[in-house]
Amino acid sequence: xxxxxxxxxxxxxLSDDGALRVEDxxxxxxxxxxxxxxxxxxxxxxxxxxxxxxxxxxxxxxxDCLYYEITVQRGNETFTxxxxxxxxxxxxxxxxxxxxxxxxxxxxxGTS
Length: 112
Hints:
By secondary structure, the chain is an alpha+beta fold. The chain is 29% helix and 34% strand. It has helices at 37-48, 85-88, 94-109; strands at 2-3, 8-14, 19-24, 29-34, 66-74, 77-84. It has a 6-stranded antiparallel sheet. Strand 2 and strand 3 (19-24) form a beta hairpin. The longest helix is centred in the C-terminal third of the chain and has 16 residues, at 94-109.
């Protein structure tokens, strides 16, 4: 996740065992934690429904938009999707990205 008026620059890495690594590049803060079983199962369910997109994102000059890049690795298959806030509501990845953003915020706040 990057962009917005505040210059957000964050990343999330989540492994299939629930190990979570969050980095806020703007502040230099890194957090490694374990997400809850409920969150992990919810994310796994959402990931099982994700399909590679065939269309390109609509990048705009939206100065306060956040931009998202998500890379999914399943077995031998890897795909990446990119979008902005303008695309998120229409995306099949919306719920997944919002869930990951919530888990990210909890980890950075120390409440995961």
